[in-house]
Amino acid sequence: MSHDDSPLLRQSPVPRMTPDTAGQLNRLRKEQRRNSVLFRVFAVGSGIAILASLLFERHLSWLMAITIMVMLMGALLRHRMAQQTRHNIAQWEALMRAQQRQAAQQEAWRRMRELLQCDLDEDAFLRALLDTTAEVLGSARISLWFLDSEDHTLTCRMALDPALNGLTLSPLGLDSYLASLVQNPCLVTHDAQHDERLSGLGKYLRAHSIHSMLDVGIFVGGELRGAICCESTCSREWHGDEITTLMGFSGLLSQFSESLRRREVEHDLYRQLHHDEVSGLATLRGLLERLQALTQRGEAFHLLVLRLGGLGHINETLGQQAGDEAIRQVAEKLKERLTELQGSIHIGRLPANRLLIAIPGQTDESLRHYCLERLLSMGENSWRIFGTPSQLRFNAGVARYPLDAQDIESLLQRAELAVQHARETPPPHLAFYTSQLSDWEQRLNRLERELRTALDEHQFRLYLQGQFDPEGGLAGAEVLLRWQHPREGLLTPGSFIAEAEYSGLIRPMGQWVLDQACALLGGALHSSELSLSVNVSVQQLHDDAFMTHLAQLLERHDFAPRRLILEVVESLLVTPGIAARLNALRELGVRLALDDFGTGYSSLRYLQDFRVDEIKIDKVFVDAITPHRDAPLVRSIIALGKALELRVVAEGVENAAQQDYLCARGIDFLQGYYLARPEPVDTFLRRLEQPPPK
Fold first, then answer.
1. How far is the C-alpha of 464 from the C-alpha of 479, rounded, in Å?
2. Any idea where the GGDEF domain is (predicted)?
3. Calpha distance 373→356 (Å, rounded)
4. Residue 455 belongs to a domain with what CATH number?
5. Which of 49, 147, 365, 397 has CA atoms 20 to 30 A from the CA of 316?
6. Is 331 left (phi over 0), alpha (psi -120 to 50) or beta?
7. Phi/psi of residue 308, nearest 5 degrees
């Protein structure tokens, strides 16, 4: 429920005690007093008339009869006038009380709306809601009950009566109560202990002497998640405006729950991307802001890449957990030794077995001496990993800002080149970047020439990796590219895609992949319902000819456009003008998927701004699923996809435990080595000849 949709906001403005209203009430009260005086005068006059009639009763008996009739009529008139006046006063007093209640309710609503905009934690917001509800309803028995979606128990999350906190009600007997809240979000009763809807709560009601109840359901994502409960130990009439107020507060609580869940997911995603859980260090993404701050200040610093040798052997002999433990120990030792240097030292972890260190305020010679004496000498230590003696080796490559590069990306490339050179040199395995190490530029030029030759000589190969539904049925595939290099054999995209993007060759390569995929959908796969997912780069989308070429492919191969899924990376969404391109693609009938979801920019916000059909959970999140460990981020992403009516695909499924976990949480499709490795088109097509799983 949005703020503007709340029942409270649909009420007319609260009437105030105006001078006219107060004057009317005063006039009614004066009228009552005047009528009372008139009646007394009339009664005295009537008494005199009776006395006179007694003196002359023999001659004036008819006068006495008239006098008695007048007296009776006067008494009746006085009674009716007094009764009407009391009724009018009671009505006006009830109106004034209602006006005062509504004024208090709208003031309370305003305060709660303001609190909703603040970043309050859950306890603070719930406490404020309870206190405000008690204030406007005049009740001391206010409590919040949350429904467990797994075992359907009701637990008191917070109450003004401390004795209720943490109290749990068994699901036995709650069916009629919960069904009543689902059918009608408001449950009102003046005789709780004899209300059939509350028959399962009889023990609780008797134990707390509850006679009247006003309960309003709390709904999140359209599902009942709990109730706000107002109880009274005596019979009480619940006014309509009080019911409306409590329903409005329930809507605010639903909004807060959604906001809190969104904040938690965003926080977890941010932490996942900026903080390495294994080493306790920042990731490269987490370091970028700090490094860019150094460059903006023009502060000279050394960027050092430290490579850990021997980590692979530990993983193979002692297991992955031992490898993680080795990284943790190295990170702790590294932080301990770097505190000896002056200045602000920034440490982070790069993928695999490398650490990144930014060290300002040192000369080349002082840093060289420090690396030899304190960092590289760590390889001489006896490392014990889970009690087992282990050997680690360290190589270091250093690049200097601004001497070796003017931007972080180039500086990191040069430091990586230096550490690669250090591995190939004799101990102490330390290398500073020099212009002689610019082999990467030569390699880039060589690769560009070879990629052009590969396009001309048809050296690229199409591979497909199957995507499966939870029952194991083949639903489609992701289209992957391989390069059959004449000397180096079959190469994966990681060996050449970066150079292809840098040189602009990604556009003709991407066009070739798209051509092959559409030919498959209109040819060998024409009679099937399988879909194919194709990665599209930002360069392709910015190419004005891309849309025209795609429309021609759809017309030429004559297949349902929805069977073609174009995957775009999340970071693409921040590109100016991209929204119009994506909308144009959807108008052609193809579907859009957000690849590597959660690893890009502000995922949740962009899901609201851009229309996509599918999100793909990145392998980094799936890796967190183990038999003995929950994966809350994966659960949250699946739930988010369901709420937005998107297909959710999990990438990188590598074992049965991950598959079972994802299927139990409602994943739509799965992809990974455990189900199928990337394979040539012919091998994939043979899958279609196999019978479907039972």
1. 5
2. 299-435
3. 18
4. 3.20.20.450
5. 397
6. alpha
7. -95, 115
